[in-house]
Design a protein that fits this description.
Number of domains: 1
Distance between the termini: 24 Å
CATH superfamily: Aldolase class I
Radius of gyration: 15 Å
CATH class: Alpha Beta
Order of helices and strands: EHEHEHEEHEHEHE
Oligomer: single chain
Structural class: alpha/beta
Helix content: 25-40%
Number of strands: 8
Largest sheet: 8 strands, parallel, barrel
Strand content: 15-25%
Shape: globular
């Protein structure tokens, strides 16, 4: 199982850099620099992440500006169609957000290394989120097909990860904001 920490909106560059060793101790392998408040400090966070052994991931919108950083690239759900086109990027890892089974399969059979499937549970960081949950049977089927390349996102806790693992019967990966940045 791989863990992906996703930066919350309220965190500062200094906070992230200081917290990276804690994330590493929690088993985090990847940190997605999602918060737009951190974009100006992207180089600093990417360098600090690499020093701790955590692979940084930046949004596609920043990838051209920070090509030399050799960070992973994340495609938001509305950008997923761009994954089917030839990209000049040599990103060490490509992740994509997805909200339905068919798109997840297409992305994982294509260029995506990991697909963030959400919401699996009601998100803890977005109480107002009223989207339908990703169908559990389809999530389990997806995990059975792609294992750790499926990243469960939305309301993840240790207890829910164990529950989902028991249901799916296979390893998968998990991502979270609150699960890693709960203070």
């Amino acid at each position: 199982m791989k863990f992906f920490a996703i930066t919350p909106e309220y965190v500062s560059c200094k906070d992230i850099v200081q917290y990276l060793p804690v994330l590493k101790d929690k088993g985090v392998a990847y940190v997605y620099i999602r918060s737009s408040r951190l974009y100006d400090d992207c180089e600093t966070i990417v360098a600090a992440s690499k020093k701790t052994g955590i692979m940084p991931i930046i949004p596609l919108s920043l990838s051209e500006s920070f090509r030399e950083l050799s960070a992973g690239i994340h495609f938001k759900s509305f950008e997923a169609d761009l994954l089917t086109k030839e990209l000049s990027s040599q990103a060490p890892v490509i992740t994509a957000a997805c909200h339905d089974f068919e798109t997840a399969v297409t992305l994982l059979q294509g260029r995506a290394d990991y697909v963030f499937v959400s919401p699996v549970f009601k998100p803890l960081s977005k109480q107002e989120d009223s989207r339908e949950l990703f169908p559990r049977d389809k999530l389990c089927e997806l995990i059975g097909m792609f294992g750790e390349r499926v990243v469960a996102l939305g309301g993840m806790t240790d207890k829910r990860i164990l529950e989902l693992h028991s249901e799916a019967g296979y390893d998968f990966s998990a991502a979270g904001i609150t699960m890693f940045f709960n203070n």
